[in-house]
Amino acid sequence: MKKILTSLLVLFFLSIGYSTQAKSIRIALAEPPSDELAAFFVALDRAKANGLEYEWTAFADEELAIQSVLSGQMDIGFGTPYSAMQKSKAPIRIIFQLSKLKFFPVTTKDYSKLEDLDGEPILLHSRGGGTDSIANVIEEKLGIKFGERSYISGSANRVAALLANQAKATIIDLSNKNKIMASHGDQFNTLPMFDVDASDEALFANLDWIKANADSVDIFVSALLSVYRDMAKDPTMVRRETNPDGPIGELPEEVLAELDGFYTDAVAGGLYDVDGGGEKAAKADMEWYSKAGQLEGDLASLDINDFWYLKPLNDNK
Amino acid sequence: MINRSLSLKLLSAILIFGAWEISSRSGINYAFPTFFESMSALFDMIASGLIFKAYAETLKPLVVGVLISTFLGVGIGVWVGLSEKFDWLVSPIFIIMQSAPLAALIPLIIMAYGIGLTSKTFVVCIMAMPVIVLNTSGAVKNTPSSLIEMSKSFLASEREVILKIIIPSASPVIFAGLRLGVSAGFIGAILAELKITPTGVGDIISYSRMTADYPSMYAAIFSIIVLAVIFLNVLERIEKYLFAGNNKGYIS
Questions:
Q1: Which residues in chain A are contacts of B214 at CB distance < 8 A?
Q2: What band does A54 get if pLDDT is binned at 50, 70 and 90?
Q3: Chain B closest CA to A87's CA: distance in Å?
Q4: Pairwise CB contact (< 8 Å): A150 & B31
Q5: Is B236 a residue whose pLDDT tops 90?
């Protein structure tokens, strides 16, 4: 009994020591480091050069990353936690738009425009997820109704399903659309779609934490902005500035070789906002996620300040 | 006057749910709803019939998988226990199945069997069958030899030895294996619904997580646990009914 009590006490003091000592910010990534996160890691390196200490943990999916921030185990998370912000009592706010919801309907040659998909089955990421919301908004804008929706997570997996003839229509991200159109352009169509300004990935944190760590947040946001601006001028800077010993630099050579192409396409495709989103993105998000059914209530009654904390961005304009 | 075992069970439930309620109210985590919030979400789902629709979907692979595993598993297990050659041939497969990290194998299963009912049933079987087979074969091998000798001296045929001596004597361990196998099958069914394609209860869990409706998420998880417990109790009743003389005291 005495032993157990002593070890509990030791654990307790250790944990106190840990929590007071840990000053570096803890970032919850929604996926393992991949080509899509290269620009983000370049920004982290720049922030580190300006004195920001950080550590990151990759989660298996976005919801786990959101939950880890809600529980306070992580400081900054990745994703678009609009329903979590509205439904949980947590004071979570978005501070930066990392990428826009640029996804593309890709189908077999049987279809040539979105209207053709009326009543047709479609393959999406997950119920309630980003591509599901795109499908909802397509239905609403064009007055069509998709047939049965089935779900496979990951654009690459949906491409595999498309190639294996398990689906005829899906919605996938830019890089996978480019890959499949380059290799199997004769079998598939990319259907023309309207422009979307809403966020796919954004950085968010607990408001109390943001205010208590204003300096760190400021360094981080300014580093992100500088990278996004440089990248808009020259997308190849991402590859050049990638730390060869970092999580991105250690990816296989084939992935690194495609970074230039990926970022050139992404910048040209308008995936990134050079101003980090801000008010414009917040408005687009609220409109989008209301239509998509992730935000409840009348659009007019939603307040931007309940979802975004714009100060760090405004200070860095 | 309620009997003592029931009152103890109720007390243990109150303690656990009370701890749940208190820990959530203490605000350790915004993503952790209170017990009452979760229960009210569960009643909403029951009232709207959503949960029944979900279970109609989830029970398909679960029931099919558990039935296959039970009959095939006990059959194979008895055979493995009786024949040394068959033991060498088959046991390694089930030992490997039991120790393989299933979640990592799911992409392979999808590749082989697609994303439909077959894959999910297969996942349930992989989870449930090894423990049933291995327990059954172990129990059959451990039949007291004096009983078998006795039956032979009474001129019992081979079939009678199996049906009247070996299986009744092995029944407690076979049923222990069945209970473990069925609970593993429940895990497999939910795992399949979360990892292959979200349908049924797995869909409620992942969708309510996606929309941050945490009370519904915990309600769905709670409901599957309750169902598993009920199912295991039913299994105990069946055992008690089939092998009344063999009750070694653990059937409550």
A1: 87-88
A2: very high
A3: 6
A4: no
A5: no
Indicate the domain borders of chain B: 34-246
The last residue of a domain, from among A120, A155, A190: A190
User: In this complex, how many residue pairs, one in chain A and one in chain B, have their CB atoms less than 8 Å apart?
Assistant: 58
| pTM given for the model | 0.77
Q: Which chain A residues are closer than 8 Å to B209 by Cβ? A: 63, 67
Pick the more confident residue, A50 or A317: A50
- The domain in which residue A85 lies consists of 24-101+198-315
Whether A19 is in a domain gets the answer no
Three-class SS of chain A: CHHHHHHHHHHHHHHHHHHHHCCCEEEEECCCCCHHHHHHHHHHHHHHHCCCCEEEEECCCHHHHHHHHHCCCCCEEEECCHHHHHHCCCCEEEEEEEEECCEEEEEECCCCCHHHHCCCCEEECCCCCHHHHHHHHHHHHHCCCCCCEEECCCHHHHHHHHHCCCCCEEEEEHHHHHHHHHHHCCCEEECCCCCCCCEEEEEEEEHHHHHHCHHHHHHHHHHHHHHHHHHHHCCCHHHHHCCCCCCCCCCCHHHHHCHHHHHHHHHHCCCCCCCCCHHHHHHHHHHHHHHCCCCCCCHHHCCHHHCECCHHHHHCC
Residues A141 and A247 in one domain: no
CATH code of residue A118: 3.40.190.10
Does A70 sit within 8 Å of B213, measured CB to CB? no
ipTM for this prediction? 0.70
Among A190, A224, A259, residue at a domain's last position: A190
pLDDT tens-digit map of B204-223: 998 888 888 899 999 999 99
At B3-44, the pLDDT tens digits run 888 899 899 999 999 999 999 998 777 888 999 999 999 999
- Between positions 61 and 100 of A, the ones with CB within 8 A of B are 63, 66-67, 70-72, 81, 83-90
In-domain check, residue A53: yes
Q: Which CATH superfamily is B34-246 part of?
A: MetI-like (1.10.3720.10)
